[in-house]
Amino acid sequence: MRLHSAKTTEYGTKRMMLVDNPQDEQYRGAVVCYAYFGERDGPSEGCHLYYGGPVEQVIEDLEEMTGRSRLSWTVIPDQLPGCADDWIAPVRIAQTERGEPIRGRWERFERGQWVRL
Predict the structure, then answer these.
(1) What is the pLDDT of residue 52?
(2) Which of 109, 1, 12, 112 minimizes the C-alpha distance to 54?
(3) Torsion angle, alpha carbons of 85, 35, 61, 84, to 10
(4) Other CB atoms within 10 A of residue 105 CB
(5) Residue 45 and residue 86: Cα distance in Å, rounded?
(6) Does the pLDDT value for residue 18 go beyond 90?
(7) What percent of the chain has pLDDT over 90?
(8) Single pTM value for the model
(9) Which among 15, 20, 31, 84 has most CB atoms closer than 10 A?
């Protein structure tokens, strides 16, 4: 499950995403909390790992630490396999025709095909 929350203050919009079933094996067993500056979908500015508790506990902790209401969280679909968990849209690292990664470039899955961003 993934959850998304946006909070707008006098300093701009700050978004957070929680992922309780991360695709990356090194994060298994953790709830990953991604942080963003601004409203647009894109790669996160950073992440924090929460071990040992369910996503509901993380939401409670974030409400206490940041003032982000538990009612601000919206469930969003799990990411497609092989796509970056920290994007809302299905986005992956761009690939050559042979399937080799092109670092620093992204592709979004739109209308059944991969489109370079």
Answers:
(1) 85
(2) 1
(3) 0
(4) 11
(5) 10
(6) yes
(7) 87
(8) 0.89
(9) 31
For tokens 């396999």, the residue is: 81
Which domain, by its residues, includes 97? Answer: 2-116
Calpha distance 108→61 (Å, rounded): 33
Residue position matching structure tokens 């309780």: 20
Is the pLDDT at 23 greater than 90, yes or no?
A: yes
Number of domains in the chain: 1
Q: What is the mean pLDDT of the chain?
A: 93
Q: How do beta strands 91-95 and 101-110 pair?
A: antiparallel
d(C-alpha 110, C-alpha 12), whole Å: 29
In angstroms, how far is the first alpha carbon of the chain from the final one?
Answer: 26
pLDDT at 83 over 90: yes
